[in-house]
Amino acid sequence: IKEENALLRSKINKLQILSETQADKMRKLEKKLQENKIKEEKEAQDLEAMVQHVEQNLQLMTKRAAKAENSAAKLRQENAQLQAELRNSRLEMEALRAGQAGLAAAKQNAELALQHLLQVTTSSRASIRQLLSGAESLQLIADLLKSIDRISEV
Predict the structure, then answer these.
(1) Is residue 131 classed exposed, middle or buried when 0-12, 13-18 and 19+ CB atoms within 10 A define those classes?
(2) Which residues form a coiled coil (predicted)?
(3) Which of 75, 96, 111, 114 would you call most buried, defined as having the most Cβ atoms within 10 angstroms of its Cβ?
(4) Is the dihedral of CA 49, 50, 54, 57 positive or negative?
(5) Rounded to 5 degrees, what are φ and ψ at 48?
(6) Which of 82, 51, 58 is nearest to 149 (CA)?
(7) How large is the angle between the packed helices 104-153 and 2-99, nearest 10 degrees?
(8) 25-80 confidence digits (pLDDT tens)
(9) What confidence tens digit (pLDDT) does each residue in 11-40 have?
(10) Each residue of 84-104: pLDDT tens digit?
């Protein structure tokens, strides 16, 4: 009986040690679980902040694209007006050449105006191209940001 008691006490001691070890593991796992929950909450908050930032950038880029489109439309209108003026100037110049050979000063003024109109037309066309290119770039960035927003939702 003494041997059996000693054997049973030994088993009880082993089981108590095992129980304490498992309790320690359980406490460590619970602590790790809590740490992971906190980490996930922080990551979710960071992700939400990033999504809000992306949305703000998207709104800003949309406004910029709208401004660029408006500027392009204004420049197109100005270009059309300038081309009409150019046609009128050419017609006037031709009339002056045919009808009044003695007005050299008027001819020079018309030539100068024509050159100026051509320069303005050329520069306005270049500006329109740049604005359209900028609007396309902004649209591409907006599409990219929308994709990022969709990915972050997934």
Answers:
(1) buried
(2) 12-99
(3) 75
(4) positive
(5) -65, -40
(6) 51
(7) 170
(8) 999 999 999 999 999 999 999 999 999 999 999 999 999 989 989 999 999 999 99
(9) 999 999 999 999 999 999 999 999 999 999
(10) 999 999 998 888 777 665 556
